[in-house]
Amino acid sequence: MTHFRQFWFAGVLTLAALVVAFAFGGPQTALIVLILSVLEVSLSFDNAVVNARILNRMHPIWQQLFLTVGIIIAVFGMRLVLPIIIVAVTANLSIPDVIDLALNDATTYGEKLAESEVAIYAFGGTFLLMIFLDFVLDPEREVLWLKPIELALQKVGKLDQFSVVIALAGLYLMHALAPEEDSLTVFVAGVAGLITYLLVSGLDSLFEASMEEDDDSETVDLAPNGKMTMELFKAGVFTFLYLEVLDASFSFDGVIGAFAISDEVLVIALGLGVGAFWIRSLTIFLVRAGTLNEYLYLEHGAMWAIGALAGIMLASVHYHVPEVVTGLIGVGFIGLAVVSSVAHKKRHPEEDDDVATVASTH
Predict the structure, then answer these.
(1) Which of 117, 129, 238 shows the shortest CA–CA distance to 191?
(2) Among the listed ranges 14-18, 30-34, 87-91, 151-155, which one has the minimum average pLDDT value?
(3) Cα–Cα distance for residue pair 324/329, rounded to 1 Å
(4) What share of residues in the chain are helix, strand, coil (percent, to 5)?
(5) Are 343 and 296 in contact (CB under 8 A)?
(6) What is the mean pLDDT of residues 268-297?
(7) Given a cut of 70, is residue 332 above it in pLDDT?
(8) Domain extents for the chain?
(9) What does the buried/exposed string (b/e) look like for 258-277 if buried means 16 or more CB atoms within 10 Å of the residue's CB?
(10) Which is nearest to 56 in space by CA: 302, 283, 351, 306?
(11) Euclidean distance between CA atoms 204 and 44, whole angstroms
(12) What digits encode the pLDDT tens for the residues 9-18?
């Protein structure tokens, strides 16, 4: 039960947010904040699972930074500041003008943000697609969930950089399907998403490899004075950055969908921020409770959910997909993965957690 203590602050924060919302806008505003929190959790549940897989190999101090500094970035950076920057760039407005719109003309701000969704979906969809492809195409991955499909994908994955080829092909298709006035935006934003993924994941892999080559890599820790050493900094900084970009890609859908529920920017930030904190708390819980090892296919379900979300975001360049569908697909994949994991444990009671540990290392 000690692992559930990770959620106590999220619960307190939720109550505080509801009290603030009730004080300023009455029961209707409090209800909207609660609905937005649930929306954020449903859209980002698979994000928590993927985050947990990555955090498993990070030092506890980086895990704590993810929950403290990371949540500030998630709430204020990704769900409040980033949309303002996107609107400023795509609508060719100054930052002060966009802030003025957000605070005093929320309807127009929401419309400007909706006009930016083509670029948002192309960037986020391409970034998430690369995460999914690099997972399912990995020929060295030993634990398979949807075996016939994943075996076939692993064979294809033996071709070097084939994930990039698929992503570019998908991006070209979206570029061709997009309205003429949006086609260039789709292409540029998609390429930016691809470059961002390759850069961040590449730097992370580079520093991870250098740490493994270091004889003292397994004892990387704080300095005697309690401060972070350069080795510990290098071991986690790019992974931390990768997690924040991943969070941004997930947050786009929630921010845009939130304007269908409310046009008050601060109310949206409050609701999505509470939901984001629940996701962070869930991530830490999954790490410290060893849930990924207990449920063999949980990571697989999350990755397939990310693949589905990537497809939905890219398709949203041309078609509208309701947020409820996106959320249900993600939760559905994870639910099926949990059921499959439980069934596997019943069929193979002789297997211990060493088998499951293989999944968390690939």
Answers:
(1) 129
(2) 87-91
(3) 9
(4) 80, 0, 20
(5) no
(6) 86
(7) yes
(8) 2-360
(9) bbebbbbbbbbbbbbbbbbb
(10) 283
(11) 23
(12) 889 999 999 9
